[in-house]
Amino acid sequence: MPEWLTPAILDQVAQICREAGAVIMPHFEAEGMAFDNKDDARRSQVTAADTEAEALILPALAALNPNVPIVAEEEASDGRVPDISGGEFWLVDPLDGTKEFIKKIPEFTVNIGLIRDGKPVLGVVYSPASNDMYVGSTALDIAWQERNGEARKPLRVRPVNAQGITICLSRTYGKSVELNHFLERFRVEKQVDAGSSIKFCLIARGEADVYPRYGGSMEWDTAAAHAVLNAAGGRVCRIDGGPDLAYGKPEFRNSYFVAWGGPEA
């Protein structure tokens, strides 16, 4: 790994996420919520909070290492994508869970992930509404959480109990025929509906077992949380059983995937 990637970088990225969260929260707490629809395939929604948070994150990340390009959701939506042929780059989603954000549901996150050779090697996920921070890096063998300002604790997935699993599903996207077929393979003891990358974090902290995603997503939606989950002992792979989800693909689109906790108990 590059010499500049140190544990101190994790704390600095976490601080950048906190500062972005401080920009976002006044918009969340204000009356009403103005938004626009992007001209993309998903007709994604964007608010002033998205753009203002990203405007804070970009120069702060560049100051950590100006040689590492940054792929950020709103910049990419406007056609501004840097050269990532060197294999190392940041992936930024300044506000994941915009649909929940607009509906005043406090399940949105700030996400910053570092990619190297197609793999997420560092990730920070911050939930501004709950003041929960999740940090992980397989390169540094670090995975920790800070829940609502409490003392820092290790993050670790739990073994999957085949006799009854807890499954995370998207609060926004309903069940599909494909998802129902997937669920038939398991005895589902509990279902948790949640927005944004929080679903990965529930698995990373040992409160859920699996999150299947049959639906469109972009690399910046998953990179940070993927890194956190990997560092906590989990895995994110293609839902057809193929290799782990990779990054730096043309157009930055993900295949369908499933995020897993630990091995079977």
Can you give keywords for this protein?
265 residues, alpha+beta, D-Maltodextrin-Binding Protein, domain 2, 3-stranded antiparallel sheet, 14 strands
- CATH H-level homologous superfamily name of the largest domain: Fructose-1,6-Bisphosphatase, subunit A, domain 1
Q: Which residues sit in consecutive blocks of at least 5 with pLDDT less than 50?
A: none
Name of the CATH architecture of the largest domain: 2-Layer Sandwich
The gyration radius over C-alpha positions equals: 17 Å
- The amount of beta strand, in percent, is 25-35%
| Helix/strand order, N-terminal first | HEEHEHEHEEEEEEHEHEHEE
Strand numbers in spatial order across the main sheet: 3-4-5-6-7-8-9
Q: Indicate how many domains the architecture comprises.
A: 2
Quaternary state, please?
single chain
Give the overall form. globular
Count of distinct strands: 14
User: What is the fold-level CATH name, i.e. the topology of the largest domain?
Assistant: Fructose-1,6-Bisphosphatase, Chain A, domain 1
Note down, in words, how this protein is organized.
By secondary structure, the protein is an alpha+beta fold. The chain folds into 2 domains: 7-154, Fructose-1,6-Bisphosphatase, subunit A, domain 1 (Fructose-1,6-Bisphosphatase, Chain A, domain 1), CATH 3.30.540.10; 165-260, D-Maltodextrin-Binding Protein, domain 2, CATH 3.40.190. It is 29% helix and 27% strand. Helix 1 (7-29) runs antiparallel to helix 2 (48-64) and helix 6 (198-204) packs parallel to helix 7. The mean pLDDT is 92.
